[in-house]
Write a structure and sequence with these properties.
By secondary structure, this protein is α+β, with helices and mostly antiparallel strands. Among the domains are: about 25-70, Rubrerythrin, domain 2, CATH 2.20.28; about 85-120. The chain has helices spanning about 85-90, 95-110, 125-130; strands at about 25-35, 40-50, 55-60, 65-70. Strand 1 (about 25-35) and strand 2 (about 40-50) form a beta hairpin.
Length: about 130
Amino acid sequence: MAERSLRGARLGTQSFEDERGVEMAPRQEVVYTCTRHPEEHKFTLTMADDAEVPMKWECPRCGAVAKHAAGIESTAKEAKPARTHWDMLLERRSIPELEEILTERLELLRAGEIGPVHLHRRTSKRKRTA
C-alpha cells in the first residue's frame, strides 16, 4: 500500500498545473491612497481591464476607506423608487375594477362562503333548534 502513495506531495491545496501556454486576461493596476494617517498608505490592486473600478476600497493596513489615487469621484447612480404592491396592482387593474372585486369579496365574506369560520354568521344553528 505504501508503494501507491504519492511521495513528495504536501497535504493541502497545491496546484501541479503549469502556467505555460495559458494566456492571462488583460489586467490593469489600480492605485489607492489611504489618508487616515499622516504617512498616507498607498497600495495597488490588480483588476481586469473590463472591470468597473470602485472609487473607494478598504485599506489593507489600517482598515480605513482609501480613495482612488486618480482622485476621480464616482457619479451617484440614479436610484429607482421602490415599487410597492399597490403600484404593481395598479399596473394590472383599474380602480373601478378593484372596487368591483372588493364588493364581490365582501358579499361572499358576509354570506359566510369565504373567510375564517369565526366570522361566519350563525344562521345554521338557529335553524337546527327550531
